[in-house]
Write a structure and sequence with these properties.
Blueprint: H1 2-29, H2 32-41, E1 44-46, E2 56-58, E3 62-65, E4 68-73, E5 75-76, E6 80-81, E7 85-89, E8 100-104, E9 106-111, E10 116-125, E11 130-134, E12 137-141, E13 150-152, E14 160-168, E15 171-175, E16 178-186
Antiparallel strand pairs: 1-16, 2-7, 3-4, 4-9, 5-6, 7-8, 8-16, 9-15, 10-14, 10-16, 11-12, 11-15, 13-14
Length: about 190
């Protein structure tokens, strides 16, 4: 009886091992081009969780999250104002949870290491004017709704989403009282 149990246990191990090997063979059968294409379609998203809560940044500061470089830039008021700042808060002003970036008379420039076809983000606009620049076009006004080439929801004191579709060669967003979060860059 003991001998039969050992054979059954070994048969289970054999079938389990065979199933694992077959699964591995199917995974490895995908060509490198298919794997590269699948990974190339995925966006790179930043939710600012990698920055310390309440940390602040001023014009000229840079940081990198998920392989994307960010630069704090001036703000078009008009004229250009270079004394603004940003900080990392978690008040949910951009309509999401966790860390978010609060822009106070400053802009955040996205410097992607890859060609960009689309940028999306959550935002909350709480007063003053906003800046949005992409491909050399600079918007300086209130809410983002109605900007040519931009899809945006939200209103004053109501969080929304923003999407700019490319190709996108340069991009920055700024505001006097603007929270942003969940910024995604699509290849």
């Amino acid at each position: 009886m003991l001998h039969v149990q050992r054979v059954l246990f070994s048969a289970r191990k054999f079938w389990l091992l065979l199933a694992i090997l077959l699964g591995l063979m199917v995974f490895l059968a995908a060509s490198p081009a298919q794997v590269e294409q699948a990974s190339a379609q995925a966006p790179i998203c930043v939710n600012f969780q990698g920055l310390p809560l309440w940390s602040s940044y001023v014009v000229g500061d840079t940081f990198t999250l998920n392989g994307i470089d960010f630069h704090i830039e001036g703000f078009e008021w008009p004229p250009w104002f270079m004394g603004g700042s940003t900080y990392i808060g978690n008040g949910g002003y951009a309509g999401s949870w966790g860390n978010e970036m609060w822009l106070n008379n400053a802009s955040l420039m996205v410097d992607s290491p890859m060609p960009v076809s689309k940028i999306t983000l959550d935002y909350g606009w709480y007063g003053g004017n906003t800046n949005l620049m992409y491909n050399g076009f600079l918007y300086n006004g209130g809410n983002f709704v109605g900007i040519p080439g931009v899809t945006a929801t939200g209103a004053y004191n109501v969080p929304g989403q923003l999407a700019v579709t490319g190709p996108i060669f340069d991009f920055f967003i700024g505001g006097q009282e603007l929270a942003i979060d969940n910024l995604c860059v699509y290849p």
